[in-house]
Amino acid sequence: MPAIADTHIVNRERVQPTHANNYQSAHGGIVMKWMDEIGAMSAMRAARETCVTAQMSRVDFERPIPIGDTALVESYAYATGRTSVRVRIEVSREDPRTGETEQTTSAYATFVAISDGEPTAVPELTVKGEKCRELRDRALAEEPER
């Protein structure tokens, strides 16, 4: 069975002018695309199958990511259903010169495991260690109603 730690992924994207909106910061749709891609990778690690997005809830854009900064996209699976994987996704802006970070965006997403075009069963997630327990418990406590 996969562990929560096995699903943890961190990715970086440098915000370029082609990613920007009229305010010279990352366009929300671009940020959501990065979140969806990294979230799906976490789900696939949990499911051990290809996963597709079923829903994304409560995407909160708290502050912008300026051109030239790095978008730090972090995700992990925290719960599974019969064929679904629930993933917490957080984005921070990172100053590439100092490494200073500040959270900018967060969301919860549900992905469905697919095999031969049909939903397929996923294994349960295991919790190994206090850090993983804290991540899971925090995500479950803050998760919006589905």
UniProtKB/TrEMBL annotation:
Example GO BP: acyl-CoA metabolic process
Entry GO MF terms: long-chain fatty acyl-CoA hydrolase activity
Entry's transmembrane regions: none
Any single GO CC term annotated in Swiss-Prot or TrEMBL for this entry: cytosol
Annotated PROSITE patterns: HOTDOG_ACOT
Tree of life domain: Archaea
Residue stretches making up the HotDog ACOT-type domain: 5-117
Hydrolase keyword on record: yes
The protein's name: Acyl-CoA thioesterase
